[in-house]
Amino acid sequence: MNGILPLWKPRGMTSHDCVFKIRKILRTKKVGHTGTLDPEVSGVLPICVGRATKIAEYITASGKVYEGEVTLGFSTTTEDAFGEKVVETPVDRTITKAEVLSVFEKLTGEIEQTPPMFSAVKVKGKRLYEYAREGIEVERPTRKVHIHKLELLDSWEEKSGSTVSFSFRVSCSKGTYVRTLAVEIGELLGFPAHMSSLTRVKSASFTKENCFTLEEVQEKVDLLEISDLLLPMEMGLSYLPKILINDTLAERVKNGARLQKFPDWPDKSEVVMLHDDKAIAIYQEHPEKPGIIKPVKVLFND
């Protein structure tokens, strides 16, 4: 079994819970997920099986798309709907669509974020959520992330009330905390806010339409239709440039050989080597030897 199983992660389970469940259903240990989803967030979670575990980091590093909801009026300890209230300031004016779109424009592009205390980021060898559970506040590293696109999903012109909620879709880079983005949206509108719901609708090239639920995975296995569950590794590398190589060169690439740089080498840091439409290795320019390329990862060598 080698390939990518696009799983629709249910709310209430951790990403690790899903991996454990898939290992048990498929009866194989070589299983890994491609980027943690919070327990209360549902959505697309590509699971790598067999040889595909070699490219898990590439799927994790790819862009993600989420659909969520911001609620203005109060903030929480976890920046989502499951934490305790921290600051409560009733919305005392009308919120217009125009000003929300203006805020979205300000948050599009490269921005800096400080991860929430309830997150898996490590500080001094310990997860932030471990400090948070002990009531310890620590200095958190600021990181740069990229918001490719931020859209308003609701059809409205004005909203009012003590709390105001609206839905959005965001396309973003690895490392983006959408909970924190919701808080930042609120700050720019002048109110405490939190993320009241979130679903991941795309990871790399995988969408909800590709996904199976855990129940559907079990059904396919019971019917001996495991191959229907697994998509090719190449889908997880679709965003990287590719070069097609011949049989002779393929043997050298499978053995991890260093090669002369191709005349048409793409202006990218990493390139997928394809043979018969199968990804067999990922190469990059040698950092110390101009004109030479070297393997970053050999994917297929048998």
UniProtKB/TrEMBL annotation:
Gene3D superfamilies assigned to the protein according to its UniProt record, in alphabetical order: Pseudouridine synthase (3.30.2350.10)
Positions of the tRNA pseudouridylate synthase B C-terminal domain: 179-237
Function: Responsible for synthesis of pseudouridine from uracil-55 in the psi GC loop of transfer RNAs.
GO molecular function: tRNA pseudouridine(55) synthase activity
Family matches, as Pfam families: TruB_C_2 (PF16198), TruB_N (PF01509)
Residue ranges of domain Pseudouridine synthase II N-terminal in the record: 23-178
E.C. no: 5.4.99.25
Keywords for the protein's UniProt record, in alphabetical order: Isomerase, tRNA processing
Enzyme class: isomerase
Taxonomic lineage: Bacteria, Bacillati, Bacillota, Bacilli, Bacillales
Catalyzed reactions: uridine(55) in tRNA = pseudouridine(55) in tRNA
CDD domains linked: PseudoU_synth_EcTruB (cd02573)
Active-site residues from the entry: 38 (nucleophile)
Protein name: tRNA pseudouridine synthase B
InterPro entries: PsdUridine_synth_cat_dom_sf, PsdUridine_synth_N, tRNA_psdUridine_synth_TruB, TruB_C
Listed NCBIfam families: TruB
Entry's family note: Belongs to the pseudouridine synthase TruB family. Type 1 subfamily.
